[in-house]
Design a protein that fits this description.
Elements: H1 30-41, H2 51-64, H3 76-86, H4 100-119, H5 128-139, H6 153-169, H7 173-179, H8 211-218
Length: 222
């Protein structure tokens, strides 16, 4: 739960909102709590990625979704590791893209190879500006090292790397608090569905000059 020790700022869209305050309240049932507990229990203990792969994934995730230092970190790389180990997949893939596990291994190998070619270091060892440049080139389809094989760098960036990292991030309760989402709507659901309406168990969005009011509401959302 939040411990407010600093003034509310206009940069916080849902100040003092913590979705985990719903844990013991009427918003979640036992099944919902079990699902959330599994997400929270995912730890950075590698089951799929090798240590170098995990370092590369972590560095990439930090550039795609930089996280603030003043709240718990969403363990993006660990969430991806768990997903790949468990074999959770989309059920489809674009032409030239191997299955998810192979695509991730090959794509990470190719990105590290591109970093070595351009900067003589692995991806996690180059500067943030150099990392951003390589990722921009990957997105544009301009990376063509032999390690890519049949994978187009643009496809890997958009269909696997970007998609999987963003989905992993927003699957975590810390990200739910950031965007004011109350998690699975079970058993309560949502009643007030018209524009700009909120149920009492939903987060209040801060309005300019009224951030403290939103924070007071959010401290009591259950």
């Amino acid at each position: 739960m939040h411990d407010r020790t600093r003034p509310v700022t206009s940069s916080e869209p849902y100040p003092d909102y913590d979705v985990l305050n719903k844990w013991a309240g009427p918003s979640w049932n036992d099944k919902t709590r079990a699902v959330v507990a599994r997400r929270l229990a995912i730890a950075p203990e590698l089951r799929f990625f090798t240590v170098p792969e995990f370092e590369t994934v972590s560095a990439i995730a930090a550039r795609i979704l930089p996280q603030p230092a003043d709240r718990p970190e969403v363990p993006v790389a660990a969430l991806l590791d768990s997903k790949l180990q468990e074999g959770t997949c989309d059920g489809y893939r674009v032409a030239g893209m191997p299955r998810d596990r192979e695509a991730w291994r090959q794509g990470l190998k190719a990105i590290d190879a591109e970093a070595q070619l351009a900067y003589q270091r692995r991806f996690n060892e180059i500067t943030e500006a150099e990392q951003d440049e390589l990722l921009r080139r990957a997105e544009a389809g301009a990376l063509t090292a032999s390690e890519w094989g049949t994978i187009r760098s643009a496809d890997f960036f958009k269909r696997r790397l970007l998609r999987d990292i963003v989905l992993a991030y927003y699957a975590h309760p810390t990200a739910w608090s950031e965007i004011g989402w109350g998690g699975p709507a079970s058993p309560r659901g949502y009643v007030r569905l018209d524009f700009n309406e909120r149920d009492p168990w939903e987060a209040a969005e801060a309005k300019p000059g009224a951030e403290d009011k939103a924070a007071r509401i959010n401290r009591h959302v259950r």
